[in-house]
Structure formats: C-alpha cells, structure tokens
User: What shape does this take?
Amino acid sequence: MARIDLDLAHSYKPNPKEDGDYALLPLKMSFVDGGAYALLGPSGCGKTTMLNIMSGLLVPSHGTVKFDGKDVTRATPQERNIAQVFQFPVIYDTMTVAENLAFPLKNRKVPEAQIKQRVGQIAEMLEMSHQLNLRAAGLAADQKQKISLGRGLVRPDVSAVLFDEPLTVIDPHLKWQLRRKLKQIHHELKLTLIYVTHDQVEALTFAEQVVVMTRGKAVQVGPAEALFERPAHTFVGHFIGSPGMNFLPVQMGASGLRIGDQALPATTRTLPMGDLKLGIRPEYLAIAAADDPNALPATVTQVQDIGTYILVNCRAGEHVMKVRLAPDAVVPAPGDAVRLQVLGEHTCFYKNEELVA
Amino acid sequence: MQLTLEGISKKVGAETWLHDMSLAPHPGAVTVLLGATQAGKTSLMRIMAGLDTPSAGKVGVDGKDVTGVPVRERNVAMVYQQFINYPSMSVADNIASPLKLRGEKGVAERVRELASKLHIEMFLDRLPAALSGGQQQRVALARALAKNAPLMLLDEPLVNLDYKLREELREELTQLFASGDSTVVYATTEPAEALLLGGYTAVLDAGELLQYGPTAEVFHAPASIRVARAFSDPPMNLIAGEAMSVGVQMNAGPALQIPLPPAASRALTLGVRASALRVYARPGDVALPGKVELAEISGSDTFVHVSTAVGELVAQLTGVHDFALGAAITLHLNPTQVYVFDQGGRLLVAPTRTGGPR
Amino acid sequence: MNKPVNQKAWFLILPVFICVAFSAIVPLMTVVNYSVQDIISPERRVFVGTEWFASVMRDEDLHAALWNQLRFSLAVLAVEIPLGIGLALAMPAQGWKSSATLVIIALSLLIPWNVVGTIWQIFGRADIGLMGATLEKLGIEYSYTGNATQAWLTVLLMDVWHWTPLVALLCYAGLRSIPDAYYQAARIDGASKLAVFRYIQLPKMRGVLMIAVLLRFMDSFMIYTEPFVLTGGGPGNATTFLSQYLTQKAVGQFDLGPAAAFSLIYFLIILLFCFVLYNWMQRVGTADKEGVAE
Assistant: This one.
C-alpha cells in the first residue's frame, strides 16, 4: 500500500509548445494510501497514459512520480511493486489457475508453503477455490480476468493495483458480480486501487474519488456526489449522467437572466454579466404547470419507456432538452406543449465552460 | 420487406447453435436481438443475411423462399462490431461503393448527403485508418445506408466505442432508422440499449428464442424467468415462495396478497425489479428488514445490496444515499409490483403499471 | 459452415483440373503402373504384383539410406528449430532496422539450390575455400571428399545455413502477433527473460512452430540437389540420402520397377510422418483450449 504523488506532464514530441502537443497536460495529483480512485474519460483523453506512467511502463517526459515520498520516476514496475490488470485477460496459457496465481510469488523466491497459503487465500476471495487445478486457458473471459486480478493481489506487499478498463470484454450481468467483487476486495484488503474506464457507471460505483479527464487534462477530481451535483466543467456535466446534463445558452444582463427573448425569474445567485451556459440534469428538470409564466415553454418530441425510468425529449425553440421521470409518473404525450422549470437549487451556471455559480 | 424465419435451427457438428425457432421481424421497424454472448445472435443474423444456410427450416422474403440463396443475391446491408471498411479506399469511395456497384447516377451528391447525416462530411478524403473508432463506424454505417437495402443488420455495432459516444451514436441511429423504411435487426448484449432503441425485441438465450414482442411489453411482462434474467439491468431479485389461499408466502419471509390464477403450482418464484424496492414505506407495502452489504453510487442512482431473511436483494434508489456497511435497513415492497413465476419458470402475474407513456 | 453452393464454379476450375491431371495425376498413375510390373523390354512387360515392394523392403542398401536420411532430418530439426527461434528473438521488432534485417536474413533463401551446393563446394576446399583454408590454418585436417563424418557434417551445416532463415522468419511472424500486454504483465509479475520465453513466447508461437517443423522435416527428407552437388553422395555412400538412392536406382540402373515401388513407399512414409506430427501438435494445442484438468 502506498501513497502516490504525481507532478508531471507528458508529451510524445520532443519540444512541446502548445496544448495539443501534450498527451498529458501539466498536472499535480495525489492518491492516498488505501483509496479507490477512478480515471474517467473518453478514448484518447490520456487516462491510459497516466496509468502507464504510474505503473512504470512509461516514463513521463517532464516531472516526477513519487511512491510514499520516494522518487520512482525511472523505476521499473517490479521495483515499484505494483500490479496491473489489462483490458483483455492476460494469463499464462500453459499453466493451471494455481500456477498462474503463484507465478509472481515464485519469481520473488517466496517459500513454497507460503505460496500455497497465499494462493488459497486469494482463490477463496475470488471464489475460484474449486478451479485451482484447471488449465487457465480453457476458462471463460470473466474468470480469466479474475485470475489476472488474483495475480495482482497475491503479493501481500503490493503497493497499488491498477486497472485498465478491465470489464470491457465481460458480459453485462457478469459485470455486476465482478464490480461487487472488486469493492469487497477493496474493503477487505484496503489496497490503493486505481481504475481507468470510459464507463461512468463503473467509475462512480467503484471509486471514492473520480478524476474526470478530457484531452490530456484532469477537469475535476471529487466523489461521485460532487461530480453529479456540482460539475466544475461542462464536460463533466455532459459526461457524467445518462443522459448527460442539459445545457442552455443564457444571457445575464442588467435586467436579469434571459433565454433568447424570454426573461427568467430573478435568482438569488450572483452571476457574472454576459453569455453564460445554464446546466440542469434531466433528473432535476421538472415539468411545471402549463400556465406557469416563469417556466420555459417547450414541445414534447418523443417519450421513451426505459424500464426503470421514462425519458421525455422536448424541444424549446432550437434547443433539445431531456427530462427523466419516474416510471409511475404522469407523462405527457408527444406533441404536447409543456413548460419546463429550469431554475432550481440543482441548476449550475457556466462561463467559458467553467462553473461560476 | 417482410422477412420470415420458419422452424430455423442450426447444428454444427454435435453442437446445436440454434434450436428450432420461428421469427418474423416487424417490417419497417427495429427488431433488437437481445442475449448474452454465445446466445446465438450472430448465428441468427448470418442466417437472415444469407451468409449461412440453416440446418433445418425456411427463410422467406415477402413470401418467396430464399433459403438457399447466397447473400450476394439478397439485398442486405450489414454493419459489424469491428468497424469494417475498405482500408485502401477513401471515406467517400467507401460510401460510394454500393452505389457504384448498382451503377447509379448522382453518386457524389448522395455520398455528401449521407456523410452530412452522419457528421463525417469533413473526412471524405481521408482513409479510414486515419479516423477514430467512432468515425470509422460512422463510415461503415453510411455505407450500409447508401446501399438502401430493405434489410439492415447490425451486429453489436457500438460495443467497441466509448460509453458517451455509444449514447450519442445510439440516438442518431434511432433517428436514422425512424426516417428510413428498412427493416432493421440490431444485436446487443445490453438490456438498456434494447430499451433505448425501442421497437421490438427478441430475447435469445443459449440458442433459443424465448420471446418476441414490442420492447416495453417484453420488459414489463417477461414470459419466463429466463427472459426476466436476460432482460434486466441490474439483475432481477428472485425469491422462492409458496402459493397460499390469499397470495404468496415467501420462504422465510412475509406473505404477499397477490391474486393468483387458479392453475398456479405450489412452488413459486417471485421476481422483484431493483427499482421496485424502496427505503420508505407507502400504504400497502410489505417490509423486508436486512443488513447493508454494499452500496454503489452511480451518479443519479444508488444500488444497495442488502442481505435479508429471504435472500440477497439489490435495490435501486434514486438520488445519492450514504449507507454504512453493516447498517440495518428495511426495504419496502408493494405486492402489486411483484412478478410471480410458476414452478416451470413461466410468468403467472405481472405488476400493474400506472403512468407510463400512453 | 454450409455456404450456398454455386454450381458455375466447377467450370472455372476445369482448366486447372486438366493441368493438374496431366502434370501430376497421370505421371503418378504411371509410377503405380511401373511398380507392379517387370519391364524386361519396352514390348515385354510382366505383371509381378507386390514383388517389387517386397524386394525393395529387403534391400540392405535401402535400409542404410533410410537410416542415414532419418538421422539427417532429425539433426536438421534439432539444429534449425532452436537456432531459428533464437534468431527470431534477436531480430529487432520495428523500424528500418527490422526491414533491413529481414532482407539480409532472407538472402540465403533466394539462392538456387544447386548454386548453394557449388558455393559450399568451394567454401570447403582447403586451398581456395574460406572455411577449408581457415580450418587448415588452425591445424584441423578437413576434407569433405575424404572423410565420411566431415562430409555428413558439411552437408548438415550447408542445410542449416540455407534454411534456418525460413524458420527464423516464421517464428518472427509468430512473435510479432503477441500483444504487448503480455510482456507488460510479465514485467509486472517480475518474470525473468527465460520465464517470459517459456511461458509466453513459446506457447504463442506454437502455430508457426508447427508449420516450421512440418516444412523442414518434409523438405529435408526429400533433399537431393545440395548434397548431390556438394559430395555426389560420397565418400562411399556417407551422404547418399533417400532421394539420391532412388534416383540411382531408377535412372542409373534403369530398374524402373523397384524404383517405382520405392517412390510410392517414400511418398507414404512422408505422408505418415506428417500426419502423426500434425495430429500430435493439434492435440497438444486443443488440450490447452479445452481446459483439461491436470
């Protein structure tokens, strides 16, 4: 278990000059010992680069990586004592499950009896005790991933376990079980776990703190609640939540807030002047009474039954807004004229993509 | 075009990949093939396309038997998981290829129109390898649309894309499908995707066709436990119980007043969707006390795993709730929201639905 | 998978079918014909059934040639396969260096086989040959025309020089197909280079190694040109391998009957070896995939 401190930037070009040249823009981040973190972002945002720098498979072009205060920027993965689980299961085909799990310990010349005990313990935790003598190559994808995970956990002094989109090849109903298993393992072993994914459900359910990244930059770090309620950047509002946040361009003038030519009621929040973006999540966008003068008029374009909720698509002028309703709510029909209450305590305001109120 | 599959089955060596099934996808609409990996979705699609012949049964198009007809002679467009494009041709040439093969005029105009529909008009001169995954898949989709075939097959086309990209493309696809009049068959492993696409859903499991109908109907009234299991995300809670005079007695739990049909067997299984469980009580609810095993927060919802006397249950609660591990918790359930399955796994009672789209 | 059948395709392959029949099947039938007849003169032919086969099996010279050949083929495999794997591991993986190395290594594969024999003829000469002269200077008595063992070893060395690059190229292709994640995982697990070779590279090269072993075995079992040019089969019959023996019998002594009989036996021996080898390697491969419990 270790505390990881990053103070670095990474570029694949020798002399980076502008932002686009960097794979990872300069950042400073700390991962507390025993914490569960997720690096969340779309493809190409730099999360795998960051993970590989932490594991030692990649050396950052600028800056340092410290484990428990010690500089390990140029240390190998072996020296850092980390474990990594990859996107597709990586197992040694010729070995049995038990031999696979024992491999890292054998390489470290741990005594035989200790290896057996530790392998048994980890197999028990992963619910694979009855499969220890089967050939690893013949198992299903999720069990192979468990073996990959087990190889990382089997070392008692592992400093951190890093996951690179490990559930990509797993079926949806097995993903549940594996996610739960990961959380249980975190609870039992109290290891530092860092999880890279583009799936927000995985990130938010797994991590205590989520790092949201886009285009090489970490735009917000915080717990699931903060990311959901108060996204610090419009990208976070858009990326987190299914569907993402609704955005409306508004203007703050001397006379108050306006959307296009409609005035909105006064708000107690202090807002800067000029063009702003109003963000409100579909979960919090309410359908107001039909004659409410303070609400935005809109027309319902589509209503979808998504099983656990109802999704209503509305059109307000040229803007599309989505509303999420409970399955037993009263729902309008396509074509109905409705009014949307866009202002509330969950509404966020953005200027230049950054949160201002 | 009306595609009909009658008594189709597929055996390869000693294995049966598809058990005897009949399916007639609704013409002009989207049919979703939902099932886990290896459930037989790809095998079924290949038979629909004409890439494989079934071991038994007939394939018909608009009443005509086309079982042995090779795919070249059938008018079918197919999109794969792996972003398949002609690697040495530019994007524009890729999209134009089916049009050129048919010898159509006005190819350039049509290519531009399709490219702008899929937001790739700025990449027309590039090679597919220079594009990102999502863009490559859009090229494949544009090519499939250019063919304008009456049958369009998509085999998990979004599975190799990012979560958010998947959401965006899925929305665009829904609009594209709605504006065209081809019959679309879309294979996926995710129940959420089936629900978002709408249309009709065919649930496959281990090579068997379990149910086919309008998506919302299949979701709210699964014909058997297997369908309910395949079409649930998060997984449905299953509780064993016994039939009684006034309703169902849960094994080791409270009794529920549910009117049962007269032919119900004694041993029953109750199915409760995670979203049907609540932490606050409403009139008519039954209480299930238990202990919190795990709480997962996913932004707008919290999933709580609770161990109760009737077994382990998963509840989906809206909003963010903080639960300490091991804390005592009581889940509340309204008997009208319970599915009852009989001994053979068949559906006896489905929850009544209030609200919902009209 | 059953693909819908297109009958028109049969007509397209008819020309090829006729060519193959003319150049391969008809001559093969002719050989079978000769193997069951005693051709005393072009007009007088007697049907002798399996007599030639029996006499061929009893032939002492044939047994000697067969053992010689087997020893040679096994030696070839024992040297070329590990050496080829070693070369493949040492070759650079990407960039211009890898292309350059590939070209240089492949050069020996491009040389016509009789030229290979001629090259080594000169190479081994004590007066003007590089190898011969060097060995002479080192005080080693070397003569591939006089010493039977040295001749045999020279032929082996020549084959290794000629054909190891093929094994190396096949193994190189196999190595390139291993995803990087395996190497990364091995680094993280602290595996030594030897462990990486044993547990990752070798198992993943199984497919190409199978091809390499089959190809080298078949080719070396039928070897003719190179040793014939180099040593002519001598000294004595130290380097007379099976195909040369066969040619001597058929062309030299004009014993068509026994030669034809032996050709068929030769053909069947190769087929048998390949079948056994292939099945064994397939079975080892599938056992892995099915998760057979140990």
